[in-house]
Design goal:
Blueprint: H1 3-36, H2 41-76, H3 85-114, H4 120-125, H5 132-166
Helix pairs in contact: 1-2, 1-5, 2-3, 3-5
Length: 169
């Protein structure tokens, strides 16, 4: 395949990974702390639910775009220019996906062991009220998950920048 196509694919993947890193770290450090300081629970819960849903949608789209771009660049590259950094960078995206699944499993285990509800549906269903401590714990857990995923994405972004620079592009 032509060199411009391969370069464009690497570039799109690098930009997507940079956006993922920035969005994750911005969410965890700038957006979520003010939500934690809201004086009443219903606005905090509504805002966090919307934030979580929209974040998942955009981060999944960006991660899919980045992974597809890097794998496409690796596949289309001639044999003598197939760089393993493309696979390593893609592996950071897979690692962040695994972190998301691991966090869900940990939340399920905590729910079973402690007998408490950590899901939004169960928290709302309990006697018609939402427990503020459960919501706060959920927000803090999500925040640290975003920090962890952002760190993994930052490592991948760094690899992709060094790799694209090393390609002479």
């Amino acid at each position: 395949m032509s060199r411009p196509t391969i370069f464009a694919s690497k570039f799109v993947g690098t930009i997507s990974l940079g956006l993922l890193t920035g969005s994750s770290l911005t969410l965890s450090s700038l957006i979520l702390p003010p939500l934690l300081s809201l004086p009443t629970l219903p606005p905090a819960l509504a805002s966090f639910t919307t934030l979580r849903r929209s974040t998942a949608t955009y981060q999944t789209a960006l991660a899919s775009l980045a992974a597809t771009s890097f794998l496409l660049a690796y596949t289309l590259s001639p044999r003598n220019t197939k760089h393993p950094y493309l696979l390593w960078t893609t592996s950071t995206l897979l690692a962040s996906w695994a972190i998301g699944w691991w966090r869900q499993d940990v939340e399920k285990e905590l729910t079973l062991e402690e007998g408490r509800s950590s899901s939004w549906a169960r928290a709302r269903a309990e006697s018609g009220e939402v427990n503020g401590e459960v919501v706060r714990e959920e927000m803090e857990g999500w925040r640290w998950g975003q920090v962890l995923r952002g760190g993994v994405w930052a490592v991948g972004w760094g690899m992709s920048v060094v790799g694209i620079w090393g390609d002479g592009a």
